[in-house]
Amino acid sequence: MVKEKGNITDLEAEVIYNGLCCYCGTCGAFCKEYITYENEIPVTKKKCYEIHGACYDFCPRTFFAPLEVERAVFGEIRTDNLLGYYKGDILTARATDKAIIEKAQDGGVVSALLVFLLEHGEIDAAVVSKTSEDWVAEPFVATKKADILAAAGSKYTQCPSVSGVGDAFEQGYKNVALVGLPCHIQGMRKVQLSKGFDVGADKVKLLIGLLCSETFDMPMLKNKLLELGTQIEDVEKFNIKKGSFIVYTKAGKELKTPIKNMRDCVREACDYCYDFAAEFADVSVGSIGSEFGWSTVITRSDAGKELVKRAEEEGAIEMKKLSESELKGVRKLASYKKQGNLKNIYEKAEPIRILNMRVDPEMLEAFLGGE
Could you tell me the pTM of the whole model? Predict the structure, then answer.
């Protein structure tokens, strides 16, 4: 079993050098004196000799107890093993603001909710990801509508987004929202629930999670784009629809390849992730299941459900219940990720010890009477 206390050396051995680092930015977000990021992995700027370090404590890949986190965050645990805990119906929605829709990846719901919160004074900053000219995703502290629009759209590459929360704190913001992938959300929840370190995480008021199958390794993605006849600098937008990975170039070209052909571009750490639906966010949003131009929305916490309700009532978004047939598509991908990566997780895991019993992870269910 992974111990629940460690330092920066343990983090390197157990996570970084073990192929598990998801480059979420949580380890260095509040300890920038010691940790920076190079080539999409954490790098120690100088040695830290703490026996128990915040970097290890906060990392979602050192240890994570899903049901304990659910109970602590939502007050209850899931009845839906594929999609996690949620409140009410699963919805499909889209923004009503034309400026948002023009910039949005799909329904523009995330942008609409952030703009709604900013304009109502409920947050003073939103941490999002923004791409540079060569498509490198970087954390960005957005404080106005123009900032939100500039960062709109899916990146499909990884970003150390939680480090942007540290940036927001350093800049003096007191009420912050974070938009992130499942790994970012898990990391931020660990920061909020940490009993060993207080970095002011109560200033993060809302977590919006993005549905995610995997992200792509940037060097591998660049090579794949060359095979498709373009280069990263010429990309306007990426999308995944109906089994195809689609590249839209600045010159107006549309290049397609079956999504299975992108498998060799997936980041190694994504192979050990079981969370498709951003299960620990206040609100989870993604395109899967919804018709073109709309977004699937899963409300999980009271704060998330209330936000979506008010945004609809005040006309920031329009929404309707996702049909059962549409919901099947969401469940299918969630199941595919969990089941597909379970074998990888078992192979990476060390034998489990429960009291005096020691057993390989893949044998535990059968040993305890499962099928």
Answer: 0.92
